[in-house]
Amino acid sequence: MAIINRVFIRLSSNYFFYFALLGLISPFLALYLDGKGFNSRQVGEILAIITATKIVAPSLWAILADKTGKPLLIIRLGALLALLSFSVLFWLNDYWPITFSLALFTLFWTAILPQLEVHTLTSVRHSNKIYARIRLWGSLGFIALAVIAGEVMEAFGYQTFTHIGVIILLGLLATTMMLTPSGKARLTKNKTEQEAILPRLLDGRFISFFIAGLLLQVSFAPYYGFFALFLRDLHYSGLAIGLFISLGVVAEVVAFIYMGTLFKRFSLSSLLVFSLAITGLRWLLIPEVADSVLWLCLIQLSHAASFAIYHSASMQFISSHFTKTQQSRGQGMYLGGVYGIGGAIGAYVTGILWLDGLGASDTFMMAGLSALLGAIIMIFSKK
Question: Three-state SS across the chain?
Fold first, then answer.
């Protein structure tokens, strides 16, 4: 039992710091770039460029992990290089140097999550219940930083974004050093290198699942990139912005706790369709009701479906769809393709449509229709 508790604490702390960094970057990177004097189109371009690194980077890191048989080395190397490349922001002010530094940071940061997911699922023997409870610590990290960073940046200025990020990355690097091998060494290394993954990627169910996930990430671009700016323009305070974003993640945490029950009662396809449909309605409603605190709170609660349910179901889909020797590559290709391509397209289109806030309604409408199209694709895939 003591060993299990140690493993749980080590894995949970990694998720906490990894997603704490996301709790800083996702809501507040646009505010940081806005503080640097960039307009919404430039912000969209920067977000698109750094997100595009996720297209190739996870797969390359996953292939390296499969070939070396040392996923923990990849996790630690990614944390170290991410820290070094992010720290360079202290000395940068111009468009291309900042873009290059952030792209380099993302290139290394994306090395961590696919390997951490595989390492965690292997460590807990693919238990949905234990995985969900470990993963919810990532949500708690996100909540903590969304609230803290919003208040700190409002009080001390946008430049504190870099200081906060470095502190979190130091914590992430320290916790990766605490991880231990998940038990079974890769004795079948040669087999791993030879097993073809292409037939699994060309499977009809996986293609539908992949396209739906890509459309979901396109739809999340206005939320991840510009939601904090949107709320700021509606005269919400930094603390209020952090609390609104955190409310969504609180709902996400509750959903993670009960995912085991949901898996028993509903099929993966049903959970995926439900998540996509709720997300589409969420984006369509936001520009209509965002000036109401009550309505905005209610809409933020739907993040339980938008992220927690969809993420858990998608990880379970990948875990069951790919063989043990394909897990790292499967995770890498899914995260790279869906988050990379979908996120980059969404960020670029959002930057064009946003028009420094004047096109917010059109942007959220694009997002809502994108998620609803993903739901329709999954419905036909289910049939």
Answer: CHHHHHHHHHHHHHHHHHHHHHHHHHHHHHHHHHHCCCCHHHHHHHHHHHHHHHHHHHHHHHHHHHHHCCHHHHHHHHHHHHHHHHHHHHHCCCHHHHHHHHHHHHHHHCCHHHHHHHHHHHHCCCCHHHHHHHHHHHHHHHHHHHHHHHHHHHHHCCCHHHHHHHHHHHHHHHHHCCCCCCCCCCCCHHHHHHCCCHHHHCCHHHHHHHHHHHHHHHHHHHHHHHHHHHHHHCCCCHHHHHHHHHHHHHHHHHHHHCHHHHHHHCCHHHHHHHHHHHHHHHHHHHHHHCCCHHHHHHHHHCHHHHHHHHHHHHHHHHHHHCCHHHHHHHHHHHHHHHHHHHHHHHHHHHHHHHHHHCCHHHHHHHHHHHHHHHHHHHHHHHC
